[in-house]
Amino acid sequence: MNKKILSILLVLMVFLVSCGNQEKLSSENLEKYSALSQSAIENVANGDYDSFIGMCNDDMKNFIDEGQFKEITNLVNEKGEIVEFKEKDGIIMKDKSSGESIKTIIQKVAQKDGESTYTISFNENDELSGFYVK
């Protein structure tokens, strides 16, 4: 895996660890943020850099350039095209240092050659602030 992708994953992990109290998202917010997450996943899978970056907060915009995005797209597409979005869950956490509420969706996705799990976070402005795929 490329150093840049590992850096992105490390930033997300540090961010999630720095978050404190967490609770489940309401069903209404789960639907809202899972729809945003699915759009982000589709944007990456389709290689739509402009749409993906348009969803991101300033930190993500400054961190992911087009070359890194292509690497992420290749990683996402290793298991083939998306067949369907499966189970999802969501939590809301407070960042210990800033007090900001972070909404995180865990989304399972069936792909042609396997299944992937995405962890996608959004800040209080509904901007994408974390993107991880396993």
Q: How would you characterize the overall build of this protein?
A:
- The protein has a single domain (3-133), classed as Nuclear Transport Factor 2, Chain: A.
- Helix 2 packs antiparallel against helix 3.
- The chain has a 5-stranded antiparallel β-sheet with strand order 1-2-3-4-5.
- It is built from 5 helices and 5 strands, in the order H-E-H-H-H-H-E-E-E-E.
- Helices cover 43% and strands 34% of the residues.
- By secondary structure, the protein is of the alpha+beta class.
Helix and strand pattern: HEHHHHEEEE
What is the terminal-to-terminal distance? 12 Å
Helix and strand composition category: alpha+beta
The biggest sheet, with number of strands, parallel, antiparallel or mixed sense and barrel status, is:
5 strands, antiparallel
The total count of helices amounts to 5
Helix content: 40-55%
Low-confidence stretches: none
The overall strand count is 5
Q: Could you provide a short overview of the structure?
A:
Helix 2 (27-45) runs antiparallel to helix 3 (49-55).
Essential attributes:
5 strands; alpha+beta; single chain; 43% helix; 5 helices; 134 residues; 5-stranded antiparallel beta sheet; Nuclear Transport Factor 2, Chain: A
